[in-house]
Write a structure and sequence with these properties.
Elements: E1 5-10, H1 22-36, E2 40-45, H2 48-65, H3 71-87, H4 95-115, E3 121-126, H5 128-146, H6 151-154, E4 168-174, H7 178-181, E5 209-214, H8 229-234, E6 237-240, H9 262-281
Parallel strand pairs: 1-2, 1-3, 3-4, 4-5, 5-6
Helix pairs in contact: 1-9, 2-3
């Protein structure tokens, strides 16, 4: 048994179940186990219940308001679009934002316990989960300067390098709408720093990367490097992939199919193996 690697997986919009990342986890473990054994620790950040409760309440309220057409389509919009709307903080209310980030903090604490307080951290996000990952990492990286982490979230964290984001080495964004979110900022803003600026204090030569996987038929997903010079420097590669089977690969349903795509799995697993080799063979 060698030194361990911590992997956090964050889901996106829509009705999710606690096992949303089960197949991705199985495929990554299957590829890594021959060399890494049981040293790759993967935990899922299941934040869906945070918004689902309020979305269900909203749905009941609007049904009471009067007769509506296209009920199934409207329910689909509530389940899928409302997540992104609810997550965004307002000047006077950041309950949802903090509640979602509390789930991320709890997951990172669990990883610190299971993989080690200073284990390298790799984050995999899908859809809105890439926005959540980016925001949480940004808050960690800027907290000393701007005090962005709420007391609710801070209460769930301990003072480990992993939980402070210092050992974050790689970020994988799948089907990411970060490009759309960048419209909120002048010249499309500045991305998070990957690897963490503090990583070299713990692992001087650990390999790290930010790969942004997108399918050209996925209308939610966009390249990132072309947004501005900051994104061009931060993102290692915008990697176009063709995800999904016969019914999904040629249309927007491809957005749901990154989880088991062989190219996505292969690239993430390759980095996990390279990270394990650095930790245990150098």
């Amino acid at each position: 048994m060698g030194r361990k690697i911590a992997v956090m997986v964050i889901h996106g919009i829509g009705k999710q179940t606690p096992d949303f990342a089960a197949r991705l986890t199985d495929l990554l473990i299957e590829r890594c186990r021959p060399e890494c054994g049981d040293d790759v620790i993967i935990e899922s950040a299941y934040w869906a219940p945070v918004t689902q409760i309020e979305e269900d309440r909203l749905w009941q309220r609007v049904l009471e308001g009067g007769e509506l057409d296209f009920i199934k389509f409207r329910r689909f919009l509530v389940d899928f679009m409302a997540d992104g709307i609810a997550y965004q903080p307002t000047p006077n209310d950041r309950r949802m934002y903090d509640a979602v980030h509390a789930v991320i903090a709890e997951t990172m604490h669990l990883l610190a316990v299971e993989a080690g307080a200073d284990a390298p951290l790799i984050v995999v996000g899908h859809s809105l989960g890439t926005i959540i990952a980016s925001n949480f990492i940004y808050d960690l990286q800027m907290d000393a300067e701007r005090h962005l982490i709420s007391e609710q979230v801070r209460a769930l964290m301990t003072d480990t390098p992993l939980e402070k984001g210092e050992t974050l080495s790689s970020l994988y964004t799948m089907g990411s709408p970060i490009a759309l979110w960048s419209l909120r900022y002048r010249d499309f803003g500045r991305p998070v720093t990957i690897p963490s600026p503090m990583l070299r204090n713990h692992f001087a030569f650990l390999p790290g990367e930010w790969l942004n996987f997108y399918d050209a038929d996925d209308v939610v997903a966009y390249p990132l490097k072309s947004l501005n010079t900051h994104y061009n420097a931060a993102v290692t590669e915008d990697l176009e992939v063709n995800v999904g089977g016969f019914l999904q690969s040629w249309n927007p349903l491809s957005h749901l199919c990154y989880w088991t795509d062989k190219d996505v799995i292969q690239r993430i697993a390759a980095n996990l193996i390279a990270t394990w080799r650095y930790l245990n063979l150098t």
